[in-house]
Amino acid sequence: MKASVFFREIKNIGIHTIAGVPDSTLKQFCDAVCLDAGKTFRHYVAANEGAAVGLAAGAYLAEKRPCLVYLQNSGLGNIINPLASIANQEVYGIPMLFVIGWRGEPGTKDEPQHVYQGKVTCKLLDVMDVPYSVIDELTSEMQLKEILAKAHQQMEDNRQYAIIVKKGTFEKECTFVWENSYGLVREQALRTILENVYKESFIVSTTGKISRELYEQSDALYGNHDRLFMTVGGMGHASMIAYGMAQADESRRIVCIDGDGAVMMHMGALAFLGKQSPKNLLHIVINNAAHESVGAMPTGFSGHTYSQAARACGYPDAYLVRTGEELKTALLDAGSRQRLSMIEVMVALDSRADLGRPKESARENRVNFMNAYHRER
Hints:
alpha/beta, Rossmann fold, 2 domains, 6-stranded parallel sheet, 14 helices, 14 strands, about 20% strand
């Protein structure tokens, strides 16, 4: 199915505003809406999926038109609260259309963080009283029209409707290319970080390509990745996992290697960390101004820096670096101070085509990490 056909049909049922968080299953959809650049739809990349629901609610109040909210199914958890306590027909009754990329679909091979989420996707929508249809590469235009007619009927009754999108549903019709002006290659930056912190620290890394690159670089440098906890799911929560470790034993140095899109998703963590100010936590944010792991769409915070936000939230030290030498200097400086620090590293949009994935399961990663951590106590 062409995304242009899908957009034509949702416009026909009165949708003019689209908001959400990018997903690789929806890449062709996301590319097309970015290239539209406001000609047909107003489009917003929200901080998280729940925020997109809030935006859709506000737009409906002002315009009397339902909005489309797109997300990966792993983002369903973020929409449950605003869906149940604001949008539901028994509360404010605010209609909207969800387009959900189905990662971890039962019977298909996918990454470990998607397996359980894939199993419960339809069940969650059932529990939330959101009727849905599933589309795939065989869905015809006529079938799509019928699905959207049902969605329109539900929204006319101040309810929500979901369209679950299987992998491969949308054909490649156009490609949106997002670029930034930064020259430092992320994988090189991560190697520099590992060379300076791995042996004396334990690392919590965020989901996506950051963890995959750290995994390969750690093995290349040290022959293991035992001191690396890869948070392959739960986008935006790596810093709080790192804090949970840091507060448990102040004699152990914990390093959180985060991504800019992940930090934006739950920025309240910055305020919490600034308030707690753990002296043994180093928070490194790799910023390429994009959700690169799911298709390289720009984030809603593109062009701004998190180091300024960290200082405003109470981080004693915050560094902004753009070169390898600046990164080395910041790592040495932060390492010499016994206080909470952030290093924000501005990097290019770049990754190897042959970048691998962890060979161990998520559970095996957790066991190996804990064994290494407790062996040194």
